[in-house]
């Protein structure tokens, strides 16, 4: 037996995402955001997308290109404070935004990736995030049901990939990537380096290859990763 | 039968081979066949089974056999391992059976009062693999049919089995019940019908032999 | 106030310092103080903040600051990061606030119609850290009290705050409501009472100064 | 800041487990079983334990010593087929055994470790494992609630630990260990090697140190790990 090769041209991988798709996008702030895959999705122009991502990046960066291009109908997220365009569009009613507690978004995505139907939690029970969610008692204590999230496609940024799709991540660029890489019908990973089989140690793989459909090698690193000089 | 079952594995599949007969299927795959074998104790990319003198004490399959890795193998914990199974990333599993019903129900984990070691990972494999193939003798040691109208034993999962390979035949589970697809060499349709505990839909024309 | 808050951190604790004022607490810890700083984007063992020319583009804290690691740091995904918070492994968090109620309710994520960026990880930090300390100015820019009988804004979590550090005082949340513990140097009890939007339980005897 | 040292004598660590405790034990078959910690628990003799473990090991090995010593009142597990003593005691009514589907046991433990109250799944819905579990509909489909599991203590076998309790595992010795290391109030890890801070790369840690209470360095590797010559 040998493991199959999943390397793929970026155009072909992204072309498999249809109009109206739900798309998970890795990243927390800049690290781990698949900027190159996002750029190709902007170029191809699929519309009416539901995006699931921790944040809305910053103006002029990452999924803000999709929002600015009118491709995003709905955003499932935890925090959009660094993107004034997204806040403006939300307040104007031009972008539907569903807010989640950050760790609950992570668990809902993971639950989708684990083939579970839902998780039960007490997080946010006393907040407006609980509105409309089914209540249930566990051990005599109140809790609520948070349904699992799955997507039609996931866009993942990996540090390294082997040709079978085993992935690793570096530093805080890991964040939502390994969770989303389990939770989608079509998983597309861009990687800063694509290695031959056997070059990632089996004990150090963060996302096992069976979860990944397409591996896209990056020929250059997006300039959007550059260290930002913010005011203190 | 095992050689025939091996031909069910298509290039690119992720496959889990259950303990017993299914494990032997791997011996019938070409060395360069593109497939990923999964074991539920936490490995994708199982390599050949090793003799004790070459074994790694930390590297077994779910049946306890000492296995090896291939280039591109990955280790993971038990939660990730079953995440892979339940979320639809397992293309095929081959399992043993005590009983298979014509509805595709499978019983392979418990004989009440006699043998109750627990289901292990069997329920999830049966319920969630995209395709479930059973490898079994056509009848039990007493000669009673294992393919039946309904399972008498506690079931593992309902309506999960797609195809059954036995020493006598290849039989599909269809909306019409058991459907004969192939006969083992030298076995007659009458013998299969006789050994099957439910109606058997016969094909139009000749039945191929394996 | 920030220096005083730093003394709340006991040796061996796992601590998450929220964005804003709390982040500055770290500057008041000794270089060899035994503590593990956690950031919810996936790091235990935060090291010093780095200037842009020394920064690693892949290594930030949850506020977007370029940070570093220490010997023994670990990276993990967002699910594991909040598993740590929710399962009781986070000993202490220090957070900012819009409003704190005398019951310990905290509002720090949303001003309806004005500012609604989402709660991020704040709900879980407030609801599940073993000890929740708020660092805030005693009043808002318009001079209105931030410590109130009840929160008017949408709350982050109920009955979660243990202690509040302000520019005027250290105040505990007790079953009797706000209890004055310490005064900032040069601040009188009357000034604190005046600036607080609920009853303030005063200690017997002298109030220590920080 | 520096990270605290959690190395501990095995006697002191195990002495913190009280009579009647619920104890999670890592391992799947031989690999990853904390044989040395188990031996010390046998020596100290705490009784009336509830053990949560994938399997019951084999006769004369691992948790079978606890069972043989009469310390185990209840076993929450997935499969005990390799331990005839456990099967016999189950059938004779001397050992209460709760069977779980293997991946559901893993998820229940992980849910405890993630501070969730329960998971919702359709696994085993049509089987006797569903008896007595609350039913719930998710998206119009039937499912059931499986409550999270936590324990008073977890016994973990790691390949390497640093003194802060960052752990890694090797090959299929990982299995339930990282899940159980999140799900207990007292986490005791035995490690084949204990390293100084900084010797485990931050990207390659499997269990982050904040989850671990005590690190016990092994001075020798239990003979129970030896490769077993089974009949083919």
From TrEMBL, chains A, D:
Instruction: Give the residue range of the signal peptide.
Output: none
Superkingdom of source: Bacteria
Alphabetized GO MF terms? transferase activity
UniProt keyword list: Transferase
> Known SMART domains for this protein?
CoA_trans (SM00882)
- Pfam family name, one: CoA_trans
Mind telling me which PANTHER family this protein's record contains?
A: ACETATE COA-TRANSFERASE SUBUNIT ALPHA, KETOACID-COENZYME A TRANSFERASE
The protein's name is Acetyl-CoA--acetoacetyl-CoA transferase subunit alpha
The species is: Sinisalibacter lacisalsi
TrEMBL record, chains B, C:
Kindly give the PANTHER family that the UniProt entry links to this protein. Answer: KETOACID-COENZYME A TRANSFERASE, SUCCINYL-COA:3-KETOACID COENZYME A TRANSFERASE SUBUNIT B-RELATED
What family does the Swiss-Prot or TrEMBL record give for this protein?
Belongs to the 3-oxoacid CoA-transferase subunit B family.
Q: Which NCBIfam families match?
A: pcaJ_scoB_fam (TIGR02428)
InterPro entries reported in the protein's UniProt record? 3-oxoacid_CoA-transf_B (IPR012791), CoA_trans_fam_I (IPR004165), NagB/RpiA_transferase-like (IPR037171)
- UniProt-listed SUPFAM superfamilies: NagB/RpiA/CoA transferase-like
Recorded hits in SMART domains, A to Z, give: CoA_trans
Which species does the entry assign this protein to? Sinisalibacter lacisalsi
Keyword list (alphabetical) reads:
Transferase
One matching Pfam family, short form? Answer: CoA_trans
- Report the protein name in the record: Acyl CoA:acetate/3-ketoacid CoA transferase subunit beta
Which GO terms fall under molecular function for this chain's record? Answer: transferase activity
Q: Which Gene3D superfamilies match?
A: Glutaconate Coenzyme A-transferase
